C-alpha cells in the first residue's frame, strides 16, 4: 500500500510538471510535440521487454504478447523520435 | 544489475525526458530536446536489457529488430501532409503495447500465481484492468481515426443519435467486468470479454466524429496513450513508466483543451457531436450568396497584390489537400521580393491536427517567425491590404462573431473581413465542415478566385513575375 502511495505521488507530481512544461510550447511546435511526446509514451517498451524476456515457461501466451508489445512499442519509439527529428530540422533551417 | 541501480538509471531516463520536453518549448532548442528524450529512451532500454529478470533474449531482440525496421521505414517514407495519420498510428501502437503488457501481466499472474496479497493484489489487478481498458480504447480508436484521415473510412459524421447511449453502455459494461475480474468472480473468459468491450468502445467513440474535429481526437488519443503507459507502470511498480506516462498524458490533455477552446466547444460536445444539430432555421446558401459574390481572374488578383504593402495568407486543410505549400512559398517569396510584408495567420484548428499547418509551411522552408497565431494576427487585419484565404472556410466565417443563432456562434475566428481586400481561393462555393454558407464570400471587399489551390497560386506567381 505504501509503495502505491509513493507511485501515486510520483504520478500526480509528474502530471503537474507536464502541465507547466507543455503550456510553454508555442503552437508552431504542437505537431512535433505530439509526435515527440508520443515517442516518449513508447516507454511501455520497458514493460514489454520484461514481459517477453522474464522466462515464463508455463505458457506460450505471455512471451507471445510480450513480443507483440515489443514490436509495437519499438515502432512507436523509433518512428516517433525519427519523424520528430525530421520535422524539427525543418523549423531550424531558416530560424 | 541490482534493482536499486536499475531504478536510479530509470530516474535518469525520466529526467532526460523532462529536459527533452523543456527543449521543445523553443524552435532553436527543439532538435536537441528531442535527441535528449531519445537518449533517455535508449538508456531505459539498455538498462532493462541488463535486468536479471530478462532471460529470453531471442524474443526480445527479434521484437526490437522487427520494430526498428518498420519504424525506420515509416519515419523516412511518410509525407508531411500525412503527419496526422502517422501520429494516429503511433498513438495506436503505444496503446496497443500497453494493452499487450497488461495482458501479459494478467496471464503470467494467472499461470504462475503471485506473491502479492490483500490490498496490494487488488491494486495490481485494478492497474492491469485499467491499462487494458485505456490501451484497447487507444488502439482501436486510433485505428478508426487513421481510417478516417486516410479516407479509407468516410470522414463525415457516421452514426445516429443513440450512439452516445451505446458508448455509455459499453463503458459501464467494461467497468462492471473489471469489478468482477478484480474480485475473482470472472476468469480469463471475462478478461477476453473486457478486451473485446474496450476495443469496441474505442471504435464507437471515434466513429461518429467528423474530419474537422480530428485535431481534438488526435490530441485526446495522445493523452490516452500516455495514461495507458502510466497504468502499465502501476502494474510493475516502475517509476520511469509512471513519470513518462504522466508527462505524455498531461501534454495530450492540454492540447485537447487548446483545441476545444479554439472551437468554443466542450470536450463532451466534440465527443458526442452536438454540432450537427438540425433544429433551428437552416440558413439558405442561395440567399447569402445570390448576386453578391464577385469572382476574379488570376490577372485581376495579381493586380491587387502588385500594389499591396502588407499581405496575410490564411492556410487551411485545403492547402494540405492540394499539396500547395511549396507553391505558396514561391508566391510569398515573390511578394517579399516586391517589397511587401507577408505573414501567415494560422487558426489553432486549421488542418487535421494541432500545428499541422505550421509543419507544412516549415517543410516549404517558410520562416517560423512569419507564422502568426490567431491572437497575433487579428489586431493587424485592419492594416492589411490583401488577405489570401487558401482552403480555409469555417475559421473565417463572420457568422461565428455576429449570428447568435448560428451553430458556430462564439467560436474564435480570424477576422479577415477587416482587411482592405480578401481573396478566397476555393474550388466552389461549397460549405466547409460545419455545413454553413460563409457570408464572407458575399462581402464587398471579398473576391473569389475559383480553382485548384496549387494551380491558382502558381498562376498568381507567374502573372506577378510577368508584371515585374
UniProtKB/TrEMBL annotation, chain A:
EC category: translocase
Catalyzed reaction equations: NAD(+) + NADPH + H(+)(in) = NADH + NADP(+) + H(+)(out)
Intracellular or extracellular location(s): Cell inner membrane
Pfam families: PNTB_4TM
Domain of life assignment: Bacteria
Transmembrane spans: 64-84
One Gene Ontology cellular component: plasma membrane
Protein name per Swiss-Prot or TrEMBL: proton-translocating NAD(P)(+) transhydrogenase
Species whose genome carries this gene: Amphritea opalescens
UniProtKB/TrEMBL annotation, chain B:
UniProt GO MF annotations: NADP binding; proton-translocating NAD(P)+ transhydrogenase activity
Chief localization: membrane
Entries under Pfam families matching the protein: PNTB
Gene3D superfamilies: TPP-binding domain (3.40.50.1220)
SUPFAM superfamilies for this protein: DHS-like NAD/FAD-binding domain
UniProt entry tagged with the keyword Ribosomal protein: no
Signal sequence, renumbered to the chain: none
Name of the featured protein: NAD(P) transhydrogenase subunit beta
Transmembrane segment boundaries: 6-24, 36-53, 59-76, 88-109, 121-144, 165-182, 188-209, 216-235, 241-262
Catalytic activity of the protein: NAD(+) + NADPH + H(+)(in) = NADH + NADP(+) + H(+)(out)
EC number: 7.1.1.1
Function recorded in the entry: The transhydrogenation between NADH and NADP is coupled to respiration and ATP hydrolysis and functions as a proton pump across the membrane.
Compartments where found: Cell inner membrane
Amino acid at each position: 500500500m505504501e509503495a502505491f502511495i509513493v507511485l501515486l505521488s510520483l504520478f500526480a507530481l509528474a502530471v503537474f510538471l507536464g502541465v507547466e512544461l507543455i503550456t510553454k510550447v508555442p503552437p508552431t511546435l504542437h505537431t512535433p510535440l505530439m509526435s515527440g511526446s508520443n515517442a516518449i509514451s513508447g516507454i511501455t517498451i520497458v514493460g514489454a521487454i520484461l514481459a517477453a524476456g522474464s522466462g515464463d515457461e508455463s505458457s506460450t501466451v505471455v512471451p507471445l504478447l510480450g513480443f507483440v508489445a515489443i514490436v509495437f512499442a519499438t515502432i512507436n519509439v523509433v518512428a516517433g523520435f525519427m519523424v520528430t527529428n525530421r520535422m524539427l530540422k525543418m523549423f531550424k533551417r531558416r530560424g | 544489475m541490482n534493482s536499486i541501480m536499475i531504478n536510479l538509471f530509470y530516474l535518469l531516463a525520466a529526467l532526460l525526458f523532462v529536459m527533452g520536453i523543456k527543449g521543445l518549448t523553443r524552435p532553436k532548442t527543439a532538435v536537441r530536446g528531442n535527441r535528449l528524450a531519445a537518449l533517455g529512451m535508449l538508456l531505459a532500454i539498455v538498462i532493462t536489457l541488463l535486468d536479471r529478470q530478462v532471460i529470453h533474449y531471442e524474443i526480445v531482440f527479434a521484437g526490437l529488430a522487427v520494430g526498428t525496421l518498420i519504424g525506420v521505414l515509416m519515419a523516412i517514407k511518410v509525407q508531411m501532409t500525412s503527419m496526422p495519420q502517422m501520429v494516429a498510428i503511433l498513438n495506436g501502437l503505444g496503446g496497443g503495447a500497453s494493452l499487450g503488457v497488461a495482458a501479459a501481466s494478467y496471464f503470467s499472474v494467472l499461470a504462475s500465481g503471485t506473491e502479492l496479497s490483500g490490498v496490494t493484489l487488488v491494486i495490481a489487478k485494478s492497474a492491469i484492468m485499467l491499462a487494458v481498458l485505456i490501451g484497447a480504447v487507444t488502439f482501436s480508436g486510433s485505428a478508426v481515426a487513421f481510417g478516417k484521415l486516410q479516407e479509407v473510412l468516410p470522414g463525415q459524421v457516421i452514426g445516429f443519435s443513440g450512439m452516445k447511449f451505446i458508448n455509455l453502455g459499453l463503458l459501464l459494461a467494461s467497468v462492471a467486468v473489471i469489478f468482477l475480474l478484480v474480485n475473482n468472480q470472472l476468469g480469463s473468459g471475462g478478461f477476453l470479454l473486457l478486451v473485446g468491450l474496450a476495443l469496441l468502445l474505442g471504435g464507437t467513440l471515434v466513429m461518429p466524429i467528423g474530419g474537422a474535429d480530428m485535431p481534438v481526437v488526435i490530441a485526446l488519443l495522445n493523452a490516452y496513450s500516455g495514461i495507458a503507459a502510466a497504468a502499465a507502470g502501476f502494474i510493475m511498480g516502475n517509476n520511469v513508466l509512471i513519470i513518462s506516462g504522466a508527462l505524455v498524458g498531461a501534454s495530450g490533455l492540454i492540447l485537447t483543451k487548446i483545441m476545444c477552446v479554439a472551437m468554443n466547444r466542450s470536450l463532451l460536445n466534440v465527443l458526442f457531436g452536438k454540432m450537427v444539430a438540425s433544429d433551428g432555421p437552416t440558413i439558405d446558401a442561395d440567399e447569402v450568396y445570390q448576386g453578391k459574390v464577385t469572382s476574379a481572374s488570376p490577372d485581376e488578383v495579381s493586380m491587387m497584390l502588385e500594389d499591396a504593402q502588407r499581405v496575410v495568407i490564411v492556410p487551411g486543410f485545403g492547402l494540405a489537400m492540394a499539396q500547395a505549400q511549396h507553391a505558396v512559398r514561391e508566391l510569398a517569396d515573390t511578394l517579399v521580393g516586391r517589397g511587401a510584408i507577408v505573414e501567415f495567420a494560422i487558426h489553432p484548428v486549421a488542418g487535421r491536427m494541432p500545428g499541422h499547418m505550421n509543419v507544412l509551411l516549415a517543410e516549404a522552408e517558410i520562416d517560423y517567425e512569419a507564422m502568426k497565431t490567431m491572437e497575433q494576427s487579428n489586431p493587424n487585419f485592419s492594416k492589411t491590404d490583401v488577405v489570401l484565404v487558401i482552403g480555409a472556410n469555417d475559421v473565417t466565417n463572420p457568422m461565428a462573431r455576429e449570428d447568435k443563432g448560428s451553430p458556430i456562434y462564439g467560436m474564435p475566428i480570424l477576422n479577415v473581413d477587416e482587411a482592405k481586400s480578401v481573396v478566397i481561393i476555393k474550388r466552389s462555393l461549397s460549405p466547409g465542415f460545419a455545413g454553413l454558407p460563409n457570408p464572407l464570400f458575399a462581402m464587398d471587399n471579398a473576391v473569389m478566385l475559383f480553382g485548384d489551390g496549387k494551380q491558382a497560386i502558381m498562376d498568381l506567381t507567374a502573372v506577378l513575375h510577368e508584371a515585374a
